[in-house]
Amino acid sequence: MRYKIEYTNEAADDMRSLNKSQQIPIRAAIAKVAENPLPRSDGGYGEPLGNKRGKNLTGLCKIKLLKLGIRVVYRVIRESAIMKIIVIAARADYEVYDMAYERTK
Asked: Long-range contacts: 40-47, Cβ < 8 Å, 24+?
């Protein structure tokens, strides 16, 4: 079952800040994962986050785009079949996780 993709306002700004050559593979990766965004433990493509440096990110998953050095953090809303994009940012240290934590408070 394909999940509907929604972006938070901040994540939409994140996407707009990237150039087109970065946006294309990111959108493709998000679309692929939207086919089954559930965590891997539930048979999906999502990589659960859990606890990162003392920040509880349980319920969030990530997509890693290694060649671009970008991570996409999202939340699955099962009852509405929505994949909500929270952050699209560089993989620099734990910055993307700090951003995800702040945006989900």
From this structure: 44/76, 46/74, 46/76
